[in-house]
Design brief:
Elements: H1 6-11, E1 19-24, E2 30-38, H2 42-45, E3 47-52, E4 55-60, E5 77-80, E6 83-87, H3 91-100, H4 105-108, E7 124-132, E8 135-146, E9 149-160, E10 167-172, E11 189-192, H5 197-207, E12 213-222, E13 228-234
Antiparallel strand pairs: 1-2, 1-10, 2-12, 3-4, 5-6, 6-7, 7-8, 8-9, 10-11, 12-13
Amino acid sequence: MEMRSLAKELKDNSYPGRGIVIGKTPDGKKAAAVYFIMGRSENSRNRIFVEEGEGIRTQAFDESKLTDPSLIIYAPVRVLGNKTIVTNGDQTDTIYEGMDRQLTFEQSLRCREFEPDGPNYTPRISGIIHIEKGSCNYAMSILKSSDGNPESCGRYTFAYENPLAGEGRFIHTYMHDGNPLPSFEGEPKRVEILDDIDAMADLVWSNLNQENKVSLFVRYIDIATGEYETRIINKHQS
């Protein structure tokens, strides 16, 4: 698969929706996780990321303007032992609880499907990073309607064992802006990962559409020790 420029993928798309990037730094020492959210409505844009335990959650920036918390207030990132879960909805909790009961990532998602927000039927995108004995692997999932038909749910899981240094995979909810919004198609895109967490955060944030971007989370995890560092950028607080 061709290596794509993450900056170009973001800059050329005014509305990829919510996106996840997972990969490994060029020096091979750290696993990288990126999650961003965007919004077109005032309710969707009225959000920030806040830290919660080892993960994060979304929170209304202005509580008085929050009209509907469903689908927009959730924990996008949670940590279960040596596993870091990143998703675009409350399926983070589904995966956490399932894997805590010894189910696999894929099995945990069997009880979920795309979001009930017709006519968009927003896909549920999820990722998991597993670090053990100085190595890492990761997987990504997308649950989506059949070309906008909610009668059928397509379930796709992509697993990356011993991922290569300096590259990652990028999956997002929508192909581009539209009414209704067209769901992501194909395999997660192969993109570059930078060594420096701040440079990575800047690359993503500076190329997201200025009007639609809302919040960004970036985490780099040391594969040898499990220690991590996190960056959070909120449009309402920047």
